[in-house]
Amino acid sequence: MPRLVARTPSPIDAVANPASIRGSYERYGADGFYEEIGKNYRNPHEPIVVRSLIDAMARWRPDVSHVLDLAAGSGEVTLALKNLGAERIDGIDPFTAEAYAARTGVLAEKFTFADIATGVLSGRRYSLIVCSFALHLCEKSRLPAVSQQLSLGGDSLLIITPHKRPLLQKQWGWKIMGENVIDRVRSRYYLRNGE
User: Fold this and answer.
1) Is the Cα dihedral 38, 44, 47, 49 positive or negative?
2) 3-state DSSP call for residue 70?
């Protein structure tokens, strides 16, 4: 009788099963997970991300004249914003730029949170920055610098997160204007401190 050998699940297996993503993060690290599956990535939570985004746009009515889709994944936020009338959207994702280009037809820049913390976006201006299902993965020690750098170039910030974190501090450049929860997914809307 042939002997069955258990196969260790790969990061690619996790994409089809949202519950497996957390285990893959623990096994491979977030960077390792996305490096492995980046070009084929599709966010399994896309429906709730889109619902949360639509709700946030209606609730807070941010200016969408020039949007940064930060940690853009395969473009779920970009595509939803285009359906809502936004025209000028830049995407950034160090791991899923190929998946983003395949769905949106536009290249995403490959900057990391570390790059942003050191000022790679200096001189840019965005009316809105959207970060969906990603900022909670930023190292805690790096989060204040990332937040401050984003506040230098953004008028408003929308964080969509499956966690209670991150909660940005006022001294990091942002003032919270509101929070909403849909199916345990939080949307937090911030204005640049002093706006």
Assistant:
1) negative
2) strand
pLDDT tens for 80-96 read 999 999 999 999 999 88
Q: Within 13 Å, how many C-alpha atoms sit on residue 13's CB side?
A: 9
Residue in the block written with tokens 């619902």: 51
CA dist., res. 169 & res. 152, Å (int): 15
Measured CA to CA, the distance from residue 79 to residue 103 in angstroms comes to: 8
HSE value, Cβ hemisphere, 13 Å, CA-based, for 163: 11
> Which residue, 139, 178, 158, 162, is CA-closest to 46?
162
Q: 25-71, pLDDT tens digit by residue?
A: 455 455 555 555 545 555 677 899 999 999 999 999 999 999 999 99
d(CA 73, CA 131): 10
